[in-house]
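Issue: ligand-bound run for zinc ion - logging full I/O for the record.

Environment: standard queue, default settings, no custom constraints.

Inputs:
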Amino acid sequence: MTTHAIESIFILVAAVFWLASAYWTVKDARRRIDDSWLLVLAAIIGLVPYLGPLVYMLFRPPEYLEDVRERELEIRAMEDRLSHRGLVCPVCRTDVDPSFLVCPICTTKLRQACATCRSPLEALWQVCPYCETPIDAGASIVPRRGD
Ligand SMILES: [Zn+2]
Ligand SMILES: [Zn+2]
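Outputs:
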């Protein structure tokens, strides 16, 4: 092999590596950056041979857009749950369902059950809406098992 041939191979490998790293930079940026101008900037930086991708790695956003979106959805779902129900255990702050009589985590009594049909009752109700039994504050307290 002539020196010239070795040189050509070296340049070819260097060029392939350069293009691959630039391609990787653009691909990675598209998964992390939402802003088109920042994407263009990332692509330009990625095209700087060898140093560009390194610089990009130092400044790229730490999270994938998918993850950010997923987390936002989760937070929104959590907010929905809180605003729709707004029910948490007063003692341990666990989310509780409106139908729960006691908190499943700390066993705090959350509401009374109807003496006749055992439906969970709101504190202000004067009559059970499910079976029409008048609510007597004293009588409708469910005896707790073990008491
Ligand atoms: Zn609780
Ligand atoms: Zn009832």
